Amino acid sequence: MVHRLREVLLLFSFLAILPKATGVEAYSRGGVIQESAAYCLSWRLAVEANNVRAWRTVPSQCLRYVETYMLGGQYDRDLDLIVDQILSYVNEIVPSSDGMDAWILDVDDTCISNVFYYRGKRYGCDPYDPAGFRAWALKGGCPAIPAVLGLFDYLVQSGFKVFLVTGRDKEALGQVTIDNLHIQGFIGYERIILRTAEFIGQSAVAYKSEIRRQLEKEGYRIWGNVGDQWSDLQGECLGNRTFKLPNPMYFVP
Amino acid sequence: MVHRLREVLLLFSFLAILPKATGVEAYSRGGVIQESAAYCLSWRLAVEANNVRAWRTVPSQCLRYVETYMLGGQYDRDLDLIVDQILSYVNEIVPSSDGMDAWILDVDDTCISNVFYYRGKRYGCDPYDPAGFRAWALKGGCPAIPAVLGLFDYLVQSGFKVFLVTGRDKEALGQVTIDNLHIQGFIGYERIILRTAEFIGQSAVAYKSEIRRQLEKEGYRIWGNVGDQWSDLQGECLGNRTFKLPNPMYFVP
């Protein structure tokens, strides 16, 4: 019931910003010029297609748009469609019996969600707050992203070795992250790889490329690589296919 | 006035498919269950983020969605935002005096539009029709895409050498393509490169990679590479930055 009410409220807030999306300037019932949902849709698309890069904050006029996107159902639908694509691809692969068929999954906003943290950061309209994020992560309360948990289970059951590769600091956040993932149902992965001292200060592209290179050196065949940041999916040893999950809240270089 | 009327009609057709986009299943005033605009938005996003690949046709339930997207203003807005991003990037580059600073632009649905052809192909819900497309291209009537023409002019005036690189067959379509571009205002480019006999049958990725390799061999520095297909932007010698323009109507492998 609460869920339904939330959907209805979101429907109204969404309808209030919709007419602009049609190409017609319009006024709301209250007489206020509509917010630029059409602009925010263009911005979100450009982020996902990697045309907008190195952005520091969500454009302030897109606060309500991003909130509605994340909580109103479209984010979940986008994930469902991408996971369907991944599963179609997975089902074309015949895993070998040597146990070296691997997938790589990012952690934050790939396996588990930070949307409730970002709600307090105006969905990314506020600049990145390292101390605030660390305090949130230390609580270990990130919920699973259901579509990705389903994918994870399917990969494990299909005989793939799943590696969780995250830029989170191992010393400060290692145990809490492992516990958080476990309690949310991510059980059966081969290894979780967190950022150790030698990689501190490196870009995500450099750090994750090096991790993937080491895995390939160990003999793993990386069939797929899934992340919410382009920096998860660029650099070296990318894997046979990459999949970009949506994230309109922050950019990791 | 006609333009305004078209906008209003599109507004109504858009509103008719909107409620689904809000996460609430709803009925139109006529009592018919809403079409899946939310699904089609997810699909379009996944195409642009290169998560959906090698697709042959637009999902048939997305015919009206793609029509509204292409003609109702959002496609133009998406282009405007991307071109703004490109211009910001261009303005950070200081061209050298040696005349070797280059940009690469694709032609079809980058410089000039095929949307009126695809209108007759149910906006890509019908499968690719090589003979039909050739007959359309031979008319030489593709209109310029205004945002990209503006970008093109800016690049030329800024001292960049602009190369138009297209998979169109040189023998059959060379002259008509050159004339089409000229009449639409694409004047001042360094060279147009069409597909010659040696490249027939090659994938766009292989063909365009080889062309870019040759340009780099000639000494050109490719600062940017703009296309509506991921196959324009993958492979070798990609350039310093790539920009993916939207195209939900067809996929070129």
TrEMBL record, chains A, B:
CDD domains referenced in this protein's UniProt entry, alphabetically: HAD_VSP
Entry-linked Gene3D superfamilies: HAD superfamily/HAD-like
Molecular function as annotated in GO: acid phosphatase activity; nutrient reservoir activity
Keyword terms: Glycoprotein, Signal, Storage protein
Signal sequence, renumbered to the chain: 1-23
Protein family according to the UniProt entry: Belongs to the APS1/VSP family.
Function statement: May function as somatic storage protein during early seedling development.
Protein name: Acid phosphatase
